[in-house]
Amino acid sequence: MARTVLLAAGGALVALCLASVVGLAGYYLANHQTIDQALQAVATPTPAPTRPATSALSRTPTPEPTVTVSRPLTASTPLAGASPTRGVLREQWAVAATASSEFASPQFSAAQATGMPNTPRCGDFETAWASAKRNPQEWLEVRFAVPVRATGIVIYESFRPGRVVQVDVREPNGTLHTIFKGKDPTTTCPGQFAPQFPPTPFLVNAVRITVEEPTDPEGFAEIDAVQLIGYEPS
Ligand SMILES: [Ca+2]
């Protein structure tokens, strides 16, 4: 009888211990689940309020104030496979300029077409050359520091593009040679008109660009910068 009682008491004790373990485990899991949920809530930030779509759609698109170089060659880069006698391919910006007329000075003067492009975007900006009013044709002539055998010209048109009708290159001795005459295909603004041609058999240190200026009220063609590409004799 006493043995039976002892066995029953032992069984009850074991059951009590098991119940305690199960209870503690449940408490532990329940609390850890809560902690995990709390950690997850901290790690996941509350999403920012979504702006109404109309706020973006109602904005007027603004052109990017960038000027893309159509031929990303760097100055003094040897041309792969070229004959050494051709020298080094150079890209250079104008260092001086004159024009048939200037809308104003120093704003809109010929000098505004020297150096790198600096007109922020398409538009009537004083950082580009603009001719005076109502002349059917006007010209801009830019000069470069290093005479080269020219093989390309990049004309940065920053307002009313597509009006170049002729491009001439000038030898250091003053002789002019026409390398383009026709319809400027540039339609984007700002845009680049970039005639390319075989290396000239003479050195070039200046470029003359002729533009047509219709007598309509649309405004003037404006040129922001001019780049000369060619081989500097070694
Ligand atoms: Ca400029």
Word description of this protein:
The protein is α+β, with helices and mostly antiparallel strands and 234 residues long. The chain folds into 2 domains: 42 residues; 149 residues, Jelly Rolls, CATH 2.60.120. 20% of the residues lie in helices and 30% in strands. It contains 2 helices and 9 strands. Strands 1, 2, 3, 4, 5, 6, 7, 8 and 9 form a 9-stranded antiparallel sheet that branches. A hairpin with a 5-residue loop joins strand 5 and strand 6. The radius of gyration is 38 Å and the shape is globular. It starts with a helix and ends with a strand. About 29% of the residues have low confidence. Calcium ion (CA) binds next to strand 9.
List the helices and strands and how they pair.
Blueprint: H1 2-43, H2 53-57, E1 88-93, E2 96-99, E3 129-130, E4 137-159, E5 164-170, E6 176-181, E7 191-193, E8 204-212, E9 222-232
Antiparallel strand pairs: 1-9, 2-4, 3-9, 4-7, 4-8, 4-9, 5-6, 5-8
The structure holds calcium ion.
Calcium ion binds at residues 112-113, 118-119, 127-128, 224-225.
